[in-house]
Amino acid sequence: MHIPTRLSPDPQQNHLLAALSAADLARWEPYLEPVDLSLGQVLCEAGQAPVYAVFPTTAIVSLVYGTEEGASSEIAVVGNEGVVGISLFMGGGATPNQAVVQSAGEGYRLRASWIKSAMLQGGPVLQMLLRYTQSLMAQMAQTAVCNRYHSIDQQLCRRLLLGLDRVASDELDMTQELAASLLGVRREGVTCAAHKLQLAGVIRYQRGHIMVLDRAQLEKRSCECYAVTKKEHDRLLPAPLALAA
């Protein structure tokens, strides 16, 4: 069984925390709590206000929207580039989507009351978090377009690329059932799309473990949505730090 690589806890493995000034980081560090985030763990339920803002370092969190009929679809992905709980500094309180850990790992959390207080002070930290929120909104909008107009094959490539950008390797743990749930499509469609990628030598898939063999081909087979989202993120935020192997 594949066991994901676990990196030593370090707040600066999260790109937003790494972008803080030395003075701001020193002020935040006493309140940053290291947390282990387990697969399937719900960080915030839909319709509720987050208790914590969570900054993933090695974990990946899916923001999922569910329907009254029980269907669901991922609207955005948050990893070491961002934070879960943007409603805490946007003033909205509750959020309409669920935040659930899609790939186990580590992160840091700040109590809601503390980050709300910190945001009232404004300044560069608030500006950075608002820019991140804009990039997250762009990802949500592009995901909606992708789910409406692009094939399952293209959607799967886009989703794999989003996952790769948030891990320190070319490997992902993702079952076909999970991929289908995240994309809001039938499992048969994901099975067919994954089979095509494997036959083409782009990925190797076995028992819920995906190894990407040819990222360039994966990007070529994806729709424009991945590149558009990445370009907007890179425009708004500092360049990602190099991850430790």
Q: What are the key terms here?
A:
single chain, 245 residues, alpha+beta, Jelly Rolls, Arc Repressor Mutant, subunit A, 2 domains, four-stranded antiparallel β-sheet, 10 helices, disordered C terminus
Provide structural commentary.
Keywords: DNA-binding, Transcription, Transcription regulation. This is CRP-like cAMP-binding protein. Mean pLDDT is 90; it is low at 1-8 and 240-245. The chain is built from ten helices and ten strands. Helix 5 packs antiparallel against helix 10 (225-236), helix 6 crosses helix 9 and helix 7 crosses helix 8. The relative contact order is 0.16. The longest helix is centred in the middle third of the chain and has 27 residues, at 123-149. The protein is 42% helix and 21% strand. The protein has a four-stranded antiparallel sheet with strand order 2-6-4-5. It is of the alpha+beta class. It folds into two domains: 11-132, Jelly Rolls; 149-227, Arc Repressor Mutant, subunit A. It starts with 14 loop residues before the first helix and ends in a 9-residue tail after the last helix.
